[in-house]
Amino acid sequence: MTPCHAGPQEEGIRFEGVSVERGEARILDDVTVTLRARRTAIIGRNGSGKSTFVRLVNGLVEPDAGSVAVDGLDSVRERRRLRRMVGFLFTDADSQIVMPTVAEDVAFSLRGRGLDRAEIQRRVTEILARFGLAERAETPAHELSGGQQKLLALCSILVAEPRIVVADEPTALLDAVNTRRITGVLRRLSQRLIVVTHDLGFAAGCDEALLFHESRLVAHGAPADVIAQYERDYC
Amino acid sequence: MTPCHAGPQEEGIRFEGVSVERGEARILDDVTVTLRARRTAIIGRNGSGKSTFVRLVNGLVEPDAGSVAVDGLDSVRERRRLRRMVGFLFTDADSQIVMPTVAEDVAFSLRGRGLDRAEIQRRVTEILARFGLAERAETPAHELSGGQQKLLALCSILVAEPRIVVADEPTALLDAVNTRRITGVLRRLSQRLIVVTHDLGFAAGCDEALLFHESRLVAHGAPADVIAQYERDYC
Amino acid sequence: MARIATFAALIAVMGLVPPLPLFGNVTPITLQTLGVMLAGAILGGVPGALSVVVFLLLVAAGMPFLAGGQGGLGAFFTPSAGFLIGWVPSAAVVGWLARPHGGRPAWWRVALGTVVGGILVVYAIGIPVQALVTGIPLAKTALLSLMFVPGDLAKAVVTVLLVTALARAYPRAFRRSGRGAGRRPADARPANDGADRSVVGGRS
Amino acid sequence: MSGTTADGRPVGVVSPGRERSGGEVRRRARGRDRVERLFGTYLPGHSVIHRLPAGVKLLALAAVGITAAAVPRPEVLAAAGVVTFAAFLLAGLVGHLARQLARLAWLILAVAAGQLLFALPVPLVVANTARMTIVIVLASLVTVTTPASQVLAALERGLQPLRRFGVDPPRVALTLSLTLRTVPVLARQAAGIRDAQWARSGRYSVTAFVVPLLVAALRQADRLADALAARGLDKGPRPPR
Ligand SMILES: Nc1ncnc2c1ncn2[C@@H]1O[C@H](COP(=O)(O)OP(=O)(O)OP(=O)(O)O)[C@@H](O)[C@H]1O
Ligand SMILES: Nc1ncnc2c1ncn2[C@@H]1O[C@H](COP(=O)(O)OP(=O)(O)OP(=O)(O)O)[C@@H](O)[C@H]1O
Ligand SMILES: O=C(O)CCCC[C@@H]1SC[C@@H]2NC(=O)N[C@@H]21
Ligand SMILES: [Mg+2]
Ligand SMILES: [Mg+2]
Known about the structure:
Largest sheet of chain A: 6 strands, mixed
Strand order of the largest sheet of chain A: 6-7-8-3-9-10
Strand content of chain A: 25-35%
Low-confidence stretches of chain A: 1-8
Helix content of chain A: 25-40%
Largest sheet of chain D: none
Structural class of chain A: alpha/beta
Shape of chain D: extended
Oligomer: heterotetramer
Strand content of chain D: under 5%
Order of helices and strands of chain A: EEEHEEHEHHHHEHEHEEH
Number of helices of chain A: 9
Radius of gyration of chain D: 22 Å
Mean pLDDT of chain D: 73
Radius of gyration of chain A: 18 Å
Shape of chain A: globular
Distance between the termini of chain A: 30 Å
Low-confidence stretches of chain D: 1-37, 236-241
Bound molecules: adenosine-5'-triphosphate, biotin, magnesium ion
């Protein structure tokens, strides 16, 4: 479908015959798809390959066959540039937080950009204020509540001004209020969003949806249709 | 409400003026309630004290003020007996599973009961078969999928034949199918069940519900009413 | 017991990081010594040493937990066997020197502990054993082992940084007693993190 | 705390040698490799050596090791060498011996070269190197012919006399099992942290990696302690303060 001679200006995230293997197992099998919508939801059962799929986007997982290109950038060869373009929200906030305190953790994302301290400090303060964490700047990050940790992880990603945000089950373990808060933030993002979720309501609010089953992409289209297929065939 | 001179025959889980402190903070504040229903749901926002509350039931958390008695047994003094009566399903199966392989983990629950090997073996096999894990008996626990790990955790609890099952967010991170499976098992349990959940649909199916907010018990009654109050006042 | 098991596992996980075999010496440079220092500094002397014992028992039982996926009884007959054995008293000495009274350690104590316990004690046992196994004279073996010093000093520095960072990131790590330590009257609770600035708690 | 599994095998580890039906074996073979890599280096078999009790093998190994060290004479070493080779033959693992020697080659060469460099007499160099090699490969024979669970059980029995000094063998065995369970959990967390760190900064720094790993480990320890307590295993007595 997509022209093979697409130049680097090409928009969209293009997967071409992508397979990923671990040991004998194919954990992703011959996926070809191009994501162009602003908000894409990825749904499917546990172990169907959703996390593997989204990790291809910033080169955390490399394809064993096929190729992934994000706006024309190859995910393997241009891994470093891609990494800066993509903000990745992991399921487990615990492992995402890498520095002792809230402010330090956000500042960590700005390392190695040649920004001076005052500028880093300014951006950190600004984003923490935007997410209601300004008061917690000096708190040990691991003492935040679950919802606050997720917000912190989001701050740490957005402060780096990525072009694409990938979120892997962003609302797991959150209460109704925090869930609404995080999904609200994600929905309002100006960036392109790819979100893996078991929350079909949230998936329904996206612009397109992908359904994975047993390592294969089995549906791609309007969320309502894809969700209906999931509920009909795989639940 | 509950008579203070209740004897050890008394049925129900009685919390009398229970407070729990951590550092300067009161993470549970003067809770008095008696649970008598077969299935009790605990709801409330992140950090409201739900996990702390259910951990009092088997003495994992000790009250700094007040007392907890389960069917007349004091949760601190009779902690050892209590822990045999209460099966506790933690949110995170990773930390619930303590032995390297599936069968060993289930067998661990039967330690120190004076059962001989053949009997332990028989019970382990039986329960694994009941939950469809018979084939995985020798599998290292970390190779199970998320849903299977939850099932294993349940096996390991039920094999000890507890009188009460406590489950702290049992379906977090599970897909729709696994969620249904686990909630189905929990619903059908013959034991008394106390379940902490953000899944209000599941809470609605219980016999009573408790609502926590900022370390206090703020409602106790029929699930429909308590959920309505939660959604009205705290969401 | 849970902490002992977890730190033993941590030492094993640090063995997954590929080792640096240095040409001319038969003992690899490995991140696992960092794990040993951390076990001592964070768990304290006795539990730290016990976690190393647990780790070594599993190695002896055949687990491939040593640097480069080595393991089994053979590991205790190689020239580096003495270093392995030395890790046990090493963790103990690190713990005793770094945290003689439990509680959160001062940075200079951690530094002292890692240099004396984490480096000197290990060498004191490892080098003679290596000399014995290889038949190379003690003095020459010691000379050869000098090449570990930069790496081990770096690990000592990292341990100090890590322990300080950990105290900020997860103050619970150094609580004197774990959670559920029993009922205490409210006014006799040990100093918590918030009380660091006060004189309450009698921390050294 | 009996220290045994449901089917009576001693604590610990998977028994990778369990037979399965043909197709099953092949299908699982790969998974089994993974298990073995994580859980030990046992090579299943039915030889005399395989069937010898673990304790006997361990004692024999110690005997050879001590003799070779205490009486470093050429004829003793030659005898030890012959015994070792015979044991490999009996176990049907000569191929493994060859692989093992190939793997040890650099170590053997380095040790020999080191000694020659320091101008030790050649016969002494040969004796030293031979002694080391023999003991290492013999020890590896014990390891590959004995399931880790048996080694652990033998250890537990061997610890019995230490009861007097306050060692609690079943507790030791339990701790070993807990560790085996925790290794893959921490390994996965470590991988997650490394991924997250790379995704955020594009570089790896030791502190930014180990601090979260330590936090994860300590939390894991706390949760493990809770799980043990909830499942009826009380924490040991706390040292008085
Ligand atoms: N590094 C790995 N080694 C071996 N198997 C792996 C590895 N990573 C993933 N897998 C396997 O690949 C399959 C797909 O994994 P993936 O994490 O993509 O699933 P998922 O759809 O995100 O599931 P969930 O909803 O549970 O998060 C699973 O069966 C998993 O066990
Ligand atoms: N050991 C502890 N030390 C300090 N604070 C603690 C400790 N345990 C819990 N807390 C705090 O107590 C409060 C209540 O925690 P609890 O785990 O009971 O909440 P919860 O209702 O289960 O929340 P969630 O829905 O996020 O699981 C939280 O603010 C938490 O940070
Ligand atoms: O893996 C082994 O077989 C043992 C390794 C011993 C390594 C020693 S410990 C002190 C010194 N510092 C290092 O980094 N390596 C050596
Ligand atoms: Mg996933
Ligand atoms: Mg909770």
